[in-house]
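Researcher: Structure for this, please.
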Amino acid sequence: MTGPDADAGESARPEPSGPVLAGFRIAVTSDRRSDDLIDAFVRRGAEVLHAPAVRIAPVEQDAILISDTRAVIECRPDVVVVTTAYGFRRWVEAADAAGLGEDLARTLDAARIIVRGPKARGAVRAAGHDDDGIAHDERTASTIGLVLDAGVRGKRVAVQLHGHEDVEQLERLRSAGASVLTVAPYRWVRPSDESRLGRLVAAVAAREVDVVTFTSAPAVDGLVSAAAQLGMDGVLVDALRCGVTAAAVGPVTAAPLLDLGITPIVPERFRMGALIRTVIEHLTVNGVEQVETALGPLVVHGRVVTFGGQTVTLARGPRAMLAALMSDPGAVLSRERLLDELPEAENEHAVDMAVSRLRSALPDRHLVQTVVRRGYRLNV
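Model: Predicted structure, token format:
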């Protein structure tokens, strides 16, 4: 819940008395390393919904990887592009398991290795190889740009893909005269439990979560595709544009969100720990509000409301009503205006019902006043 900017004379934003994320609900869409995110949020009091939007195909089931590895070894590439640490490690492990480890190592030693970022560089060096360049912004486009800057006409370039084939970047290499081979140490495939993902889609579309985290671009596409199958892609995107915050681990993951008109929060450092800190900061700064009412201080922390020493949890509809009333304390908001906060509602009767449920849930029902023929206001 985000209120107006505080006036200079207002008191500092209230500090939560319990775990910093108590009252918030966070959706996690990742497959790999999802436990890291979930544990970090749960330890701080959040409720977490988890459903992988895509999953990684097990390398041991992928004969194509071994075939592509043999092709790379046989062609002896002039340049090898490494895009992810995880993918590079899986590639080396798969080659070892297939008896190709030494051949692949010699192939890598003979090539110029260009890496997409520090983690990829670390994986390459941990395997005993040296790299010849690193992208300044950890983007695949910049990595390919480094390769092109050195000239590739007549050269053989092997590209380690990261979950999907980046056709645009591969075409840049081919258009510049390179012979391009690709190797995919892992592939993104549909989740094994689509009903679970459907429940997450429904929760996001209904604005029943505060933040949705994304750690890969395919996860964005997977979530929207799942919503489309349910006929909910429009309401899902609307929710992520306004009401539910999307959090992306980096600019590559953020790109498909931006293409949909969704503005995600993105950490300055494109790492899992930084994403966790960014989500925590966003929620504790924007999700905690306090208003001095005529009956005493009212504090909202996500879905949790504290008043007069009592704490209650609000459902989405009543919470939306309270958020609107707190955004302009004391002002009378019409039923028509409040109806905007209930996207699924068809008429103003739904507003009256939501306000009634809000009053019943609050420790003191007199916190919300009815102004006859005009609407509702917070009692300040």
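Researcher: Any notable elements?
Model: The two ends are 19 Å apart (CA to CA). The domain at 59-188 is CATH 3.40.50.10090 (Rossmann fold).
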